[in-house]
Specification:
Distance between the termini: 44 Å
Largest sheet: 4 strands, antiparallel
Helix content: 10-25%
Strand order of the largest sheet: 3-1-9-10
Oligomer: single chain
Strand content: 35-45%
Number of helices: 3
Structural class: alpha+beta
CATH class: Alpha Beta
Length: about 180
């Protein structure tokens, strides 16, 4: 069965793998997003939706969720410190985001292992190059970007499979599964 308004099968969900910042980093990123919205306009990412996408899956069949859980559960990676040093703007899609100019080998290792495990098991996913970023504000018309006084960092100790569910109030992110990163 297909929803005539969205052309999406009823037995599918929109999903992605992600890492969420810890509470202290979330507060800092939310404060910066509020500041950017106040000076630049646009739509601020709500605190509950601030995340770093590891891999976007798109619409997946809900009957395959257990398969995703098992495949992702086979991935072993180490916890790592992630830091944000810059606020940047993508002109082509009018997004202000938090980014890093540092190389994070543990993060790249996690993404590579996840992609490999999914590919090996015949799972389709978005093949775009991985660019670690956290979207702060969308639909920005005139970017005036703040400088960060100091980097925002946190220890990434878990990663998640998240459902993006459309509601009458916009998208809601629902964590479906969590996996711990090794210490």
């Amino acid at each position: 069965m297909t929803d005539k308004h969205t052309n999406i099968k009823k037995n599918t969900i929109r999903a992605f793998f992600a890492i969420r910042p810890d509470e202290a980093a979330l507060k800092q990123l939310d404060r910066i997003a509020k500041q950017i919205k106040a000076t630049c306009g646009g739509q601020k990412t709500t605190k509950s939706k601030i995340h770093l996408t590891l891999l976007f899956l798109g619409n997946i069949d809900i009957d395959q969720l257990d398969r995703f859980r098992v495949v992702a559960g086979s991935v072993r990676a180490s916890s790592f410190n992630f830091s944000i040093e810059e606020i940047r703007y993508w002109k082509h899609n009018h997004i202000v985001y938090a980014g890093s100019n540092k190389h994070h080998p543990e993060l790249l290792n996690l993404v590579t292992k996840l992609r490999s495990a999914l590919s090996f098991n015949g799972v389709l996913f978005d093949q775009r190059a991985f660019v670690p970023h956290i979207t702060l504000v969308r639909k920005v018309s005139h970017p005036t970007l703040p400088d960060l006084a100091k980097p925002i960092s946190w220890l990434a100790h878990e990663w998640l499979l998240v459902q993006s569910k459309q509601t009458c109030h916009g998208a809601v992110y629902i964590p479906l599964y969590r996996w711990l990163l090794n210490h």
